Backbone:
């Protein structure tokens, strides 16, 4: 299994460094272009950085922007039917504010504020790392729009890193919905292997790794990059 | 070589996932408490998060805080002789400001502003990932103090992640100054292996991995955590 690729050159016999683990980032660095499976399918995963954003209920949209207000689509997102809206809101936390925070559409059944841990520290909040929609026990926050202000009783999360994929992709990768994998991103000068990456399988999903801004920055990610799955963990 | 520890359970023979690479984070998760070398030395590395800060020349201190002004030590840092000062400054970039940014002492021969990539985006700057002191070609920034304002022509960096260690530690780890290693941090729910971690060896240095806030957040680091070196890369 690639022992020749991962020879720990220069490590003496008594070295306390784990020889087995030598290879992950080294292997990533050696891979140029696409990784392919045995059938020739491309296995690299496009990486997308999710900047801070909010999902809103329709009634919350109206309380922030006015009665009967409808969001205006600005840019389609990679996941089908989703869009970045023209509208933005201001987040008001106990210790700070963040303005011009993008609203994503269409409206949902629950308000959700997805921010990075850096944002949480700026705002003075302690929202947990969660998958989208898993909002029980999360902190609330104040939202300000041009028409009004809304106090959410919950909904602030730091999005758990995840990979969107279709059932066909899941079969190709040999994974199932909710599996947890490790993903390597190399060649940036800030190479990283991210553990705790959750697989999200849904029909028509576009294959994409979603990181928050802290994670993207920690890995030196730039537009158009790809990562690749290095390990699957079922615990 | 730990093959039994890293059995890729559940992966079929045709799986495209790299079996060799399965182990890094899994091994990290299995290690409870301290890693030891063959002589019984503790090999875990305490992790410290460097929040945004500035190092200043004495003349810059005086231009910001007043003629003859001396920094006041507030808290000693883990590296001998270094301290967090009572004084703070405001960073003013093309697109934003950051207030209450800590000054570290004692004064140095060059002004240096160490911020995260998230901070750079907020300020509207594009400073490179660099080791401390490697300032050629870095962007400048405006600093505001209670007495005056200083325009730096260079000095803004995103600190390259690094491990401070003594010559004795370097011998124990089997590494040299400027070596680059991979460091795993596990058990946080946001497990990460950081590549591109630079070894900095100096007499009396306290063993410590320094991450910036983006990196600490991406790994879910909390106070008192340790990481461990999983691989050494000499390229």
Residues:
């Amino acid at each position: 299994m690639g022992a020749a690729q991962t020879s720990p050159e220069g490590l003496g016999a008594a070295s306390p460094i784990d020889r087995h683990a030598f290879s992950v980032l080294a292997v990533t660095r050696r891979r140029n272009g696409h990784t392919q499976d045995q059938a020739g399918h491309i296995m690299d995963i496009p990486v997308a950085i999710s900047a801070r954003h909010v999902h809103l209920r329709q009634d919350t949209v109206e309380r922030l922007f006015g009665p009967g207000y409808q969001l205006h689509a600005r840019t389609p997102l990679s996941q089908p039917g989703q869009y970045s809206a023209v509208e933005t809101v201001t987040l008001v936390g106990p210790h700070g504010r963040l303005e011009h925070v993008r609203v994503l559409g269409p409206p949902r059944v629950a308000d959700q504020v997805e921010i990075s841990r850096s944002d949480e520290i700026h705002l003075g909040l302690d929202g947990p790392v969660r998958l989208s929609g898993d909002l029980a026990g999360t902190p609330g926050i104040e939202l300000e729009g041009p028409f009004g202000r809304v106090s959410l009783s919950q909904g602030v999360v730091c999005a758990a890193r995840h990979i969107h994929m279709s059932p066909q992709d899941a079969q190709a990768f040999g994974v199932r919905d909710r599996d947890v994998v490790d993903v390597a991103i190399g060649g940036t000068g800030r190479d990283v292997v991210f553990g705790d990456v959750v697989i999200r399988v849904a029909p028509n999903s576009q294959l994409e790794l979603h990181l928050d801004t802290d994670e993207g920055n920690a890995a030196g990610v730039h537009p158009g990059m790809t990562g690749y799955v290095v390990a699957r963990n079922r615990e």
About this structure: DSSP finds five helices and 15 strands in chain A.
